[in-house]
Each structure stands twice: as C-alpha cells, then as structure tokens.
Input
Amino acid sequence: MTDSSTCLALENVSISYSGQLAVSGVFMNIPRGKVTAFIGPSGCGKSTVLRALNRMNDLIEGCALTGRVVFDGHDLYDPRVDAVEVRRRIGMVFQKPNPFPKSIYENIAFGARINGFRGDMDELVERALRKAALWDETKDKLRESGYALSGGQQQRLCIARAIAIEPEVILMDEPCSALDPISTLKIEEMMHELRKSYTIVIVTHNMQQAVRVSDYTGFYNVTAQPGSDRKVGALVEFAETVNIFNAPKQQATQDYVTGRFG
Output
C-alpha cells in the first residue's frame, strides 16, 4: 500500500500499442502536492505514461495497459471506474494550445457547466484566470475569441480551463515546447503558484525546465528488446530532482543529464 503522501502510484505498469510493447514495468509513487517531471530522449514513453495517468490512452485504438494505476486508493483501470470522472479529477494540458472555438469566458465556463457547476460562474471564471496568471491580460476582453490570444496566452487559457473543473492533479505534456522564452517563463512562474493547490506532473524535453519547476524527476530511456531491434521505454531512475541532476544512481541518468546522449 502507498502512504498518504502518494498521489498516484504506478505498480508494474506496461503499455502496448496494437500488441507492440511501448513502455515496460514502471513502478513509481508520484507525491501529492509536488511537481514531478518526466525527462528522457524521444520515444522513451514519457507522454505515454503521462496519458495513462488519466486514461487518455483509452482514446487510442489498440492501446492496452497492464499493471495498476492507483489514485486515492482506487485502481483507475478497474472496470467500475468512470474514465470521464477520472479526467475531471486529473486534468490535462497538451503540447499545443487547443482553446475551444469560443469566447475566453466560455472556454472556462463550458467545462464547468457540463460538469454540473451551479455556483457564481463570473467568480469561477475570474478565479481560474487569476490562478493561470491571465486575468489582468483578459479581464476587459472576456467576450473575445480565445483564438485572439497569443500562443502563450492560449496555453494559460487551457490551464485555466483545466483548473476551472477543480481537479486534484494537473498533467502537462510539454506545455512550453511551442512557446517563446517569455511565455515559457510565465508558465513556469504560474506552476510555482499552482503547486500550492495541485499535484502537477509535467513531461519536458527541457532539462533546465525540469530543474527549475520540479521537486521530483523520473528519467525514462529506451532499451533494446532481446533478440529484436525494437526498443522499449522504461523508467531508469526516479528521485528528488536535486539528486537526479547532481547525484544520480544510474550511469544512464548521469550520461543523459550531462548531455552525453539524448
């Protein structure tokens, strides 16, 4: 059993696409109220594991998971668990900003409304935009299209949209990779605020970003399958970020964080 400081526990999780193994044997306890980063070279399974945490992989035909993903004492892949409710409690922000083709206000109100929110919608919209550090920039144009915002603002709008349905966890799949350095900095600053209220898991290619924003880091890598030229992703090492970057236990981790490969 995991203790109360664990938010999500992965117990021997392996994921395959159309019968081909993509990630193998992941064990990890993601701590509650912290920022956890997934790093590693392309194709090592970081995003695949991230999407498994709120069953987004269910939407990919032929994707299968073995092992257990435990959240608040429940196996998220138990047949009795509602995937829609999982995604309400574990929100997701994607690599490319994807606002709805609606006003800034409706981008946030829409999800709250379909999730049964009955309170003061104006207050909810303002609160979500404030948490996403976007209120001051949008308060006078809430009726304008979300598409009218810059890329960085659109990404913060998507984060505000995720916040509005009051999740416990926010997953971020390379949320800054399409953004300029100033927009990236704003999102990193916002994450420092959000960690006070949420558990955050972020996939990033940017190791400096992992150092700046995360408390814990998981390093993934690919390994060749015996008797095959196929490569499979695996978790090599998971520890506090300071240890991953300054005193890793595995040579592969050391090689990656010092830039010898990847």
Summary: The first strand starts at residue 6 and ends at 17. The two ends are 35 Å apart (CA to CA). Residues 151-164 form the longest helix (14 residues).
